[in-house]
Design brief:
With 290 residues, this protein is α/β, with parallel strands linked by helices. It is built from ten helices and eight strands. It is globular, with a radius of gyration of 18 Å.
């Protein structure tokens, strides 16, 4: 089913994000995690793929199996990096054949093996171009876009970032999923500012459960999100006193409180970044009150 229709029927909800393992030998363990997380009755699960579509075939196969074998509605990521009209058509026709009706359109990151990569050389320069393409040629597909409660690292200003997300909605994005963040005030302010611009679509907040200090710093370095100073200090103190077990406990408590406050404040749901692990997401989901 179309996620934009599912959101209208059920709120609040939990949704999930997975990334496809590159090696197929890891797939049985991956799908064991997917099956465990069915307990949370996720409204949907998004499936990522690498820069330039490096694992696009894996994304399609995993999304197909997720829907067919596990009964979870998938959203496939689709980036503008490396895309052409021909490639997009081929991928979207494959989605249609697999009865997958949802796409999250992104610009994507520059390929790591290309020096001085220039996004302006691409046939599709921005996520907005992909959104427009899908809506014109595949209007039956429900298209979502990415949003950034903390400005995208490449945005020259907060307003320019808001303008770009507003353009995604004007081009046809029917829902938005945010990058992870840790200060809920940023999310609620962001939603209100988008509404004042006329972009009144569901904005689903992304929540990352912190499971270790090392992984937290690595992930934050990739996406540019900031941990509030007091929380970071508490994580470092917990690590010094009790190691990763103490960090995990503090991270879970924070994530549960953050997710509950988002739901209580009117967010349509919470989108959990699973890191392809079940334990933390299960703990968060089991402790939320809807």
């Amino acid at each position: 089913m179309r996620v934009c229709d599912l959101i209208e029927r059920k709120s609040p909800f939990i949704s999930l994000e997975f990334f496809p393992p590159k090696e197929k030998e890891a797939w049985p363990g991956f799908f064991e995690v997917v099956e465990k997380l069915k307990e949370l009755n996720p409204l949907f699960a998004s499936v990522t793929y690498g820069a330039g579509g490096g694992t696009q075939d894996n994304t399609l196969e995993i999304a197909t199996r997720m829907k067919r074998d596990h009964g979870i509605e998938p959203i496939t990521h689709l980036t503008s990096v490396g895309a052409s009209a021909e490639k997009l058509d081929e991928f979207l026709k494959s989605l249609r054949e697999a009865n997958i009706e949802n796409v999250l359109a992104l610009r994507g990151d520059a390929p790591r093996d290309v020096k001085d990569f220039d996004f302006n050389t691409q046939e599709f320069k921005h996520a907005t171009d992909v959104i427009e393409f899908i809506n014109e040629r595949y209007p039956e597909i429900c298209v979502g876009g990415a949003a950034y409660p903390e400005p995208h690292p490449e945005s020259p200003s907060i307003q320019s970032d808001l303008d770009m997300v507003d353009l995604k909605v004007k081009k046809g994005a029917q829902f938005l999923v945010t990058q992870l963040f840790f200060d809920n005030r940023l999310y609620f302010d962001y939603v209100e500012r988008l509404k004042s611009m006329g972009s009144n679509v569901p904005v689903i907040p992304g929540v990352l459960p912190i499971m270790s200090l090392k992984s937290a710093k690595f992930i934050l370095g990739l996406c540019g999100a900031a941990i509030p100073g007091k929380f970071l200090s508490a994580l470092e103190a917990a690590h010094a006193e009790g190691g990763d077990d103490a960090v995990y406990r503090l991270g879970m408590d924070y994530a549960i409180k953050q997710a509950q406050e988002l739901i209580d404040g009117g967010a349509p749901g919470v989108h959990l970044y699973t890191l392809n692990r079940a334990k933390a997401c299960l703990e968060i989901g089991r402790n939320l009150k809807f």
